[in-house]
Amino acid sequence: MGTKSNYAITGYLVMMLTGDLYRFQDLLSPGEAAVVTRVREFLATQVVPIANDYWARAEFPFQLIKGYAELEIAGTEQSTLLSGWLALEMAHADASMATFYGVHSGLAMGSIQTCASQEQKERWLPGMRTFDKIGAFALTEPTGGSDVAAGLRTTARRDGDHWVLNGQKRWIGNATFADLIVVWARDEQDDQVKGFVVPKDTPGFTATKIENKIALRTVQNADITFTGCRVPEADRLQNARSFKDTSKVLRATRSGVAWEAVGVMLAAYEIALEYAKEREQFGRPIGKFQLVQDLLVRMLGNVTGSLGMCVRLAQLQDAGEFKDEHSALAKAYTTTRMREVVGWAREILAGNGIVLDYDIGRFVADAEALYSYEGTREINTMIVGRAVTGLSAFV
Q: In the chain, N or C terminus with fewer CB closer than 10 Å?
């Protein structure tokens, strides 16, 4: 994944990412830096060596779940800067596994942390922190992606002390094997969106793996169908009363995708940089050619600008000054820059850029998924546009 240099911070050995030219990692505390080092070592030794193989076979490496649990980072008290940096590290190794972790710890656990009662948190979160219970997040539908706020069609009908769910969901990560699925459905009585936690063995719930993906192939996305699926009132997220509550979860996880985009960019830059120094054409390393250096510097500029935006975003979150437009702009900007970077990296590798042997082909493909999920560029643009003009362009 590129050459890394070592330096010490207050007694801790921290591997610096080659693409962190402005040394943003220095902003981490010594304790946080130690966590990053531990996670990076796990990713480098356990995830990176098998990433291409599982990606090619579109299978999930279940043997890694224990390792993620042993990192003890899911659902723990940590700064937003650290949680963002961890998302970066995971995507720098493998965007698929970063998505698995983000769905579990960000979307599923985040929904419970944000919208559940204290009793519900105590019931579900401990097992999710240890990965004994894997979570999924079911919002997107076959006919509702960008317009899911208004167009959500999965319904919930109160029936005594239960709710009856009917409808379909699509693109639900982890759903083929998740133990708990956070499901968002529209209450037939008041037309408001509410959240439910549905165990995988609930009658009326079925999940079917989506085949033939060209991106995030390791992620087990599923089509979900609810047919008279009965969920106890005790499993309804007690503090999820409308889509505004759903949006609170998405606001935070959208910033996580921005961090993931930086991780993909960093990986692409490092791969291209090492290749440019080693690959010879016309009797010299291609890194000596001006056009190649120009591409590398453009890539590094995108990485640095995007990383700086994410760092400031984390600071705003920790200061309690975080707004929808902050995460929306970061997601739209970083994923657009990411698309450029992976394309330039593939250009530098030429034909070798389209085979998995050199890793970059996987990052090029996975970038397309990150570019679209958690709000397309167009939707995030309208969120920011509404904030800066005071005028809504939403239909």
A: C
